[in-house]
Amino acid sequence: ILTSKKAEELLIKTVPGSFLVRVSEKIKGYVLSYRSVEGCKHFLIDASSDSYSFLGVDQLQHSMLADLVDYHKDEPITSLGKELLLYPCGQEDQEPDYISLFE
Q1: Cα–Cα distance between 81 and 98 in angstroms, integer?
Q2: CATH number of the domain that residue 87 is part of
Q3: Euclidean distance between the first and final Cα of the chain, in Å?
């Protein structure tokens, strides 16, 4: 579970096209944090139904979170930003901390 600030700290060290998915602090769902040429962008992912989609960007529904990510490897998230998900970015110097989500 990462804050937007921590996500930006990880992504700023990467190349444009890098991304990570994290649990949202604001909605029931996730956030895709993305490294663009200009800096970092954050896209809310709605997971409130039985599907996943970007809030306010497109209404295309995906049955799994991985399907949403795979789709945007070839199709930009926004037409203006041309965000393609090219390079997954992992956490540094720590074990994944998602175990608390299952307790």
Answers
A1: 30
A2: 3.30.505.10
A3: 14
Enclosing domain of residue 69: 4-102
Contacts of 102 (CB under 8 A, 6+ apart): none
Q: What is the pLDDT of residues 70-86, one digit of tens each?
A: 999 999 999 888 999 99
Which residues are CB-contacts of 7 (< 8 A; sequence separation ≥ 6)? 20, 22, 31, 33, 40, 42
Number of domains making up the chain: 1
Closest CA to 7 of 37, 36, 41: 41
Produce one character per residue of 33-58: b if its CB has 16 or more CB atoms within 10 Å, e if not: bbbeeeebbebbbbbeeeebbbeebb
Only one residue has tokens 């998915």, namely: 21
Which tens digit of pLDDT belongs to each residue from 30-73? 999 999 999 999 999 988 788 999 988 877 899 999 999 999 99
Report field, pTM of the whole predicted structure over 0.90: no
Position 18 scores a pLDDT of 96
